[in-house]
Design a protein that fits this description.
Layout: H1 4-42, H2 48-64, H3 69-93
């Protein structure tokens, strides 16, 4: 059974970890949202630049959390969830009409 001091330390670290994960997820989500907003406003397909920016943000977040294997795993899971969200949002924007690419 852990000592009372160890329990206090774990609880205090847990609150910092939760705050870190919230900020990390927000940074990744901001990059995904920015890419979607650029797509919606310009009507141009997402290019390699947007993908690189999202990958860079996720890589930076993983690199920042590398001191704790469990934290890295949680950051990676959050990144996967946000990438799945990006794919779902983009799938919803794809036109399935055969006339969508009809060029005169």
């Amino acid at each position: 059974m852990p000592s009372p001091e160890a329990v206090l330390v774990l609880r205090s670290v847990s609150s910092f970890e939760t705050l870190y994960l919230t900020r990390s997820t927000t940074r990744i989500n901001d990059s995904v949202t920015s890419a979607i907003n650029n797509y919606v406003s310009s009507k141009a397909p997402l290019g390699p630049g947007e993908g690189v920016n999202i990958a860079r943000v996720i890589t930076n977040e993983l690199d920042s959390a590398k001191f704790d294997p469990l934290l890295v795993r949680t950051v990676a899971r959050n990144g996967v969830k946000l990438l799945d969200s990006l794919v779902s949002r983009l799938d919803g924007m794809v036109s399935l009409s055969r006339f969508a690419l009809d060029i005169d």
